[in-house]
Specification:
The chain has 106 residues and is an alpha+beta fold. The protein has a domain at 2-39: 3-Layer(aba) Sandwich (YefM-like fold), CATH 3.40.1620. It contains four helices and three strands. It has helices spanning 6-11, 13-23, 71-83, 102-105; strands spanning 2-5, 27-31, 34-39. Strands 1-2-3 form a three-stranded mixed β-sheet. A hairpin with a 2-residue loop joins strand 2 (27-31) and strand 3 (34-39). The longest helix is centred in the C-terminal third of the chain and has 13 residues, at 71-83. The chain is elongated and about 105 Å long. It starts with a strand and ends with a helix.
């Protein structure tokens, strides 16, 4: 920590601010030999790691090993995916084909 008179600080203000920022130096500014101000580096915020920032924020409740859906639901989703696969989509203006009743076929 260095003492510097106010007149010298006024003349070298930008240079001193650069030294504080780069070298983390501290200056006490004096007026007629008495301290009136202090030039200190800004506290640097620590960069928190992205890894583990949610550690301890959640908890496991219930069974995490069983499937989320019953097997029937998975089959339904599979059928839905097959029906809506690219190239199998119906055009919006076309009517879906309807099955004929067994009586009409005869």
């Amino acid at each position: 920590m260095s003492n510097i008179p106010a007149t010298e600080f006024k003349a070298k203000c930008l240079e001193l601010m650069d030294r504080v920022a780069e070298r983390r130096e501290t200056f006490v500014i004096t007026k007629r030999g008495k301290p009136v101000a202090k030039l200190v580096p800004v506290e640097r915020k620590s960069k928190d790691s992205i890894f583990g920032w949610l550690r301890g924020k959640g908890s496991i409740t219930g069974d995490i090993m069983s499937p989320a859906l019953a097997s029937e639901a998975w089959e339904t989703l599979k059928e839905w995916d097959e029906l809506n696969a690219p190239g199998k989509r119906r055009k919006a203006n076309r009517k879906p084909k309807t099955r004929e009743s067994p009586e009409k076929r005869r």
